[in-house]
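From the thread on structure requests for the teaching lab: each student submitted one protein with a one-line request. Submission from student K.M.:

"Model Pentatricopeptide repeat-containing protein from Xanthoceras sorbifolium, tokens only."
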Amino acid sequence: MDKKYLILKLLRSSKIVKKVGKKEHHLWKKRDSAGSGQKALNLVKIVSELPNEKEAVYGALNKWIAWETEFPLIAAAKALKILRKRSQWLRVIQVAKWMLSKGQGATMATYDTLLLAFDKDKRVDEAESLWNMIVHTHTRSISKQLFSRIISLYDHHDMQDKIVEAFADMEEVGVRPDEDTVIRIARAFRKLGQEDKQKLVLKRYQCKWKYIHFKGERVRVRRDAWDKDGLTE
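Reply posted by the TA:
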């Protein structure tokens, strides 16, 4: 009998056995985000209806997590985003501080939201305390966004010395400022009467090109040819 015929016959008669994977059953999924959106909305509703006393807010938040098997971090983070979009800055501060007091949500995103809320609510001392903690705890991992946030806050409150300090920290860890932050830093040096450092910052960090609208079109031009000192108020 032909060998090829024998091989084909064996292949046809052989049974292909598929292994069935073991199914796992869980009473709950530990990090399941299902329903987190509704939980977030419930949290927003709860805190929005409370008086401004810290004890009342923290008490309600503690009740919100009383029956949870683990801290509902996803829902809490979503609630913070909703409160931020609604410009409910006091509630942002209260919820974020409560999360941090529970050892939860210590991320750059939470810090950024909290610094923004401090800025909007004119709580500069608290912003500075938080920033000092961030610098001492996360020196090498501070994002460009977070540096921009604190420099923006200092700029809004006319704190030139603090802008220069934050910029020094930026340079120390090798974080390059974005365009808006460069303008704020340069303006701070100018207000402090340090025009030489102002020019150095602009020369080192400011983009050499800028876009303008000319006759209905977006045109790229060299900044030094268009704007002598590169500063806008």
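TA comment: The chain has two domains: 37-105, 107-233. Residues 15-19, 22-30, 229-233 have pLDDT under 50 and may be disordered.
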